[in-house]
From TrEMBL:
Top enzyme class: transferase
Catalytic activity, as annotated: (sulfur carrier)-H + L-cysteine = (sulfur carrier)-SH + L-alanine
CDD domains the UniProt entry points to: SufS_like
Domain Aminotransferase class V residue range list: 24-410
Cofactor: pyridoxal 5'-phosphate
Family affiliation: Belongs to the class-V pyridoxal-phosphate-dependent aminotransferase family. Csd subfamily.
Keyword terms: Lyase, Pyridoxal phosphate, Transferase
Example of a GO MF term: lyase activity
Source organism per UniProt: Bifidobacterium actinocoloniiforme DSM 22766
UniProt KW Transferase keyword: yes
Repeat as UniProt keyword: no
Protein name as it appears in the record: Cysteine desulfurase
Function of the molecule: Catalyzes the removal of elemental sulfur and selenium atoms from L-cysteine, L-cystine, L-selenocysteine, and L-selenocystine to produce L-alanine.
PANTHER family: CYSTEINE DESULFURASE, CYSTEINE DESULFURASE 1, CHLOROPLASTIC
Length: 423
């Protein structure tokens, strides 16, 4: 990629040696490193504007509010959502997990009568179905499993093919007339497989089900347009898209956000509060943003979005795709099995692999001793590992700052693992 050295040079954390080797960071699916612009945006906010947003009458509060709302617009632009005042479709959350819990809790509240007539479209009960997939992160699986328990609805799921891809071709049978919610991942955090969404979204909408898309692993790597995709809700975390930890975003079609009851209650989300009758909640997004918000982190997340747009989403995807192809060569090493699609077009650069006879923790430590950071374990996605007959795996994952040489360093290290452990 033209300008690669300059882009990589913007990430201070990458400029270090680990165990005597230049760091190769291949763990961006867990969390991405941050460019200097993002790190500085957070401290600049504290140095100049820091104040509570929306309600203050003073200059710093006004500036903070502007910064916060600018970030909301930057985030909206990254995913093609509406940011116009009164039409906002981005809700600030504490991360993807919080966003998914917000939705599952709000649907549960609607099932118990919260939100009145308008919220009935979110209500579930016995006989209704919620559909997920075997590839889901526990952050999708568990909140919706709990929603089923709470409402008496049943959980259904898409199976996976031999390369770990969600069987979108079974949409017509998996999503029945009784389905109310389909919560599915856009890209798996284990296999890197990109879900073929069209048949799933078409069928879900045919039966009147709402589609929630987990875009945690797609937003950092692929251009996304939530309107063009036609999803109803989408959730992701800022820290995987070069932004700070502790914040994330929920996209909701405006009309749906207006009908959805809140999931969390407190300050800054009511128009009127009484002792003797229910409160009147504010319009979205404020209705879903109870309590003091992580303003500095949101502002920095907005800068991260702007930074990605400036680098260019197509350019990021193209650059990482070359590294993905290189990482897939790991499968040529004797005893190494890739868990996921073998074609770079069907996936992103999140490449999980198994080394026969060597525990992932040993693989992780061995490559770490050579300065290479990868992830080991079940990556909070146990069902997909079970699908491959495993409990845990090794996972290398790319960011825009990686190079083909990084993938080669990993290849070289993994090539020595089995001999080192005597298998
Ligand atoms: N979904 C997917 C696909 C993920 O990769 C992750 C993070 N590993 C999550 C959800 C949860 O994100 P967070 O831990 O930032 O809330």
């Amino acid at each position: 990629m033209e300008g690669f050295a300059e882009i990589r040079g913007q990430f201070p954390a990458l400029d270090q040696e680990v165990h005597g080797h230049p760091l190769v960071y291949l763990d961006s699916a867990a969390t991405a490193q941050k460019p200097r612009q993002v790190i500085e945006a957070e401290s600049r906010f504290y140095e100049s504007d820091n104040a509570g947003v929306h309600r203050g009458a003073h200059e710093l509060a006004a500036r903070s509010t502007m910064d916060f709302e600018r970030a909301r617009s930057q985030i909206a632009r990254l995913v093609g959502a509406d940011a116009r005042e009164g039409h906002e479709e981005i809700v600030v959350t504490a991360g993807a997990t919080a966003g998914l819990n917000l939705l599952a809790t709000a649907f549960g509240n609607a099932s118990q009568g919260s939100g009145g007539e308008a919220a009935k479209r979110f209500a579930l009960g016995p006989g209704d179905e919620v559909v997920v997939s075997e590839a889901e992160h526990h952050s999708v699986l568990l909140p919706f499993q709990e929603l089923c328990r709470r409402t008496g609805a049943s959980l259904k799921w898409f199976g996976l093919d031999e390369e770990g891809r969600i069987r979108s071709d079974t949409a017509d049978s998996v999503i029945s007339e009784r389905a109310k919610v389909v919560a599915i991942t856009h890209v798996s955090n284990v296999t890197g497989a990109i879900t073929e969404l069209e048949p799933i979204i078409r069928r879900a909408h045919e039966v009147g089900a709402l589609v929630i898309l987990d875009v945690c692993q797609s937003v950092p790597h692929l251009p996304i347009d939530v309107h063009a995709l036609g999803v109803d809700f989408a959730v992701w975390s800022a820290h995987k898209m070069y932004g700070p930890t502790g914040v994330g975003f929920l996209y909701g079609r405006r009309e749906l956000l207006e009908a959805l009851p809140p999931a969390s209650f407190g300050g800054s989300m009511v128009e009127l509060a009484f002792l003797d009758k229910p409160a009147q909640y504010m319009a979205p997004p404020a209705r879903f943003e109870a309590g003091t918000q992580p303003v500095a982190q949101v502002v920095a997340a907005g800068v991260a979005a702007e930074w990605m747009l400036q680098v260019g989403l197509e350019r990021i995807a193209e650059h990482e795709s070359a590294i993905t192809a290189e990482l897939l060569k790991l499968g040529d090493i004797e005893g190494v099995r890739i868990l996921g699609p073998t074609s770079p077009e069907a996936r992103i650069g999140t490449v999980a692999f198994d080394v026969a006879g060597v525990h992932p923790h040993d693989v992780g430590q061995y490559v770490d001793s050579r300065g290479i950071a990868i992830r080991v374990g079940h990556h909070c996605a146990q069902p997909v590992h079970r699908h491959f007959g495993l409990f845990a795996s090794n996972r290398a994952s790319t960011g825009v700052y990686n190079s083909v040489e990084d993938a080669d360093r990993l290849y070289e290290a993994v090539s020595g693992v089995r001999a080192f452990f005597g298998v």
